[in-house]
Amino acid sequence: MTSTETETRAVVVEREVAFPPEKIWRALTQSHLIEEWLMKNDFKPDEGHRFNLSADWGTVDCQVQAVEPNKTLSYTWDTKDLKSVVTWTLTPTSTGTHLRMEQLGFRPDQQQYYQGAQHGWQRFFANLEQVVARIE
Predict the structure, then answer these.
(1) Contact 37, 101 (CB under 8 A)
(2) Which residues are in the Activator of Hsp90 ATPase homologue 1/2-like C-terminal domain (predicted)?
């Protein structure tokens, strides 16, 4: 096997969001808010916590890998065929927050998953921004 056959790719979405990290963090870590922008879930922001995300197309099995409040959140994202890691990074800026999401772990033979994630995360980000705008 060559190294190119074993390399994985990542989907990265970055946005400048006009809200402080604390407000975005709530939308990333509170189950009822996650349901509004992503999927139904039983998430808890505790390292090692196993949770599921569910939609009409199926379920994603996840486990929290890292939690640094208002800064970093990372969790596994496993479907039947895709094993990946999603990492959120929040960096304060003068106008709000630089929000970065990286989903790493797409194998070269998973082009359909990779393209689906590229489109899906754009939609999820738009939904997330709407939820954050509504939070008091």
Answers:
(1) no
(2) 19-132
Along the 136 residues of the chain, how does pLDDT read in single tens digits?
Answer: 444 456 899 999 999 999 999 999 999 999 999 999 999 999 999 999 999 999 998 899 999 999 999 999 999 999 988 999 999 999 999 999 999 999 999 999 999 999 999 999 999 999 999 999 999 8
Helix (H) or strand (E) holding 72: strand 72-78
Number of domains in the chain: 1
Residues composing the chain: 136
CB 78 within 8 A of CB 59: no
**Residue numbers of the domain that contains 27:** 9-134
Position 4, amino acid? T
H helix intervals, 8-135: 21-29, 31-37, 111-134
Rounded (5°) CA angle 53-58-62: 30
